[in-house]
Amino acid sequence: MPDTELHRLSPQRQALLEALEGALEGSNNEHLTALAIIDIRDFHELNRSFGSACGDAILSAINERLLQLPHDTFILHYLGNDEFGILLPKLKSPGFAVICAEQILALFKGVFEWQNHSLKITVNIGIAYNYANHIDANKLLLDTELALKHAKTSNQPYTMLGKNEQQSSDQLKWELLNNLHVAMQQDELELYYQPKLCINNPDNHQGAYAEALIRWPTADHGLIAPDITIPLIEHLGSELDLINWLVNTALKHLSEIGSSHKGGVSVNIPANSVTSKALYELVEQALALWDVEPNRLTLEITEDVLIKDKELAFDYLSKVRETGVRISIDDFGTGYSSLAYFKHIPADELKIDRFFVNNMLHNEGDRNIVKLIIDLAHAFNLDVVAEGVEDSETLDLLKSMGCDYAQGYLISRPIPYQDYLSWLKENHQF
Q1: Which of 127, 200, 206, 297 has the smallest number of Cβ neighbours within 10 A?
Q2: Distance (Å, rounded) from C-alpha 160 to C-alpha 132?
Q3: Residue 412 has pLDDT above 90, yes or no
């Protein structure tokens, strides 16, 4: 965008600019604010080849994928035409903006389906951040546009404006990779727990499960969340080491809690590990080590993993279920599920994506989708967990629909293990 066009912003860009101004006003010396603009490559050619209906469908699908990113880290704005803006508030350092860009790019690895066509969509991303006294929203928006221009002209997936900043970002990324490798070896990672409360049987005082979420405490960057840690672990190729640590730590904690608490814990399994023979062996060994009933452990698998390699994933997950471990399908409703897929799915539980839950009070379509998933899951004897429950009205509506479990900030944020033990006692879970 040329300089003169900043004075003729579209309504979408004006909304982004106002959000950016608010973020910059709330920034301090401990955090940076970054802005990323995503441009879809050859989008006009896509429209010419397949028609505007296809273009609109692809934009909608891209929007849904981007909404899968953590809402507190990635604030999404559609900018019109073929561009999206993402506000990245409260970054600890420029390097995290680069990691965020790679998380965005990862969403475009899979193809997009439209009618009988499988379409590969690629993007360019421009990034800028408010280094030093760079706190003018208009200037930051312009810098991001210039960074995007550099990415497009150099045919790079993303560019962060400023050679020195880009170099320091790369250095930080490798520093984090090295530190994480040491942290995994020295058992410096932690598990936080977010309860999943049973809501369809109020008399069940032993029915609380929890999702175990990895946290990485660091001296220089504070507590680093999974959306940063997991991509770094995948980059290291240490997914199985992570699963081994997650499963054994979760089972250890369940063993410490004891049999008086009949609930369990779910852990997230990295996508690349679902179709690995080692997953079954790892789970079997962990169960043999800890005196915990297998059905108190749940492995959470994202739905897109099953769609990409259904036959192999179904086979391996069915074998894992033979141990007694439960399987949960995370982010359900965002993929392309068929009834045939649903009939044979090797799972015990579905988690409805927060995108539908967050909007169900005000969107009849999302409300109908949630009800449909609950009814269909129950028809196949699957439990249902609703994610993103943040208010009592949504909780009451889910109860009336027969949803089994609710998870979200209304019930509890992710909390350290010792705090989770206190939560269980306060809520009469054992």
Answers
A1: 206
A2: 16
A3: yes
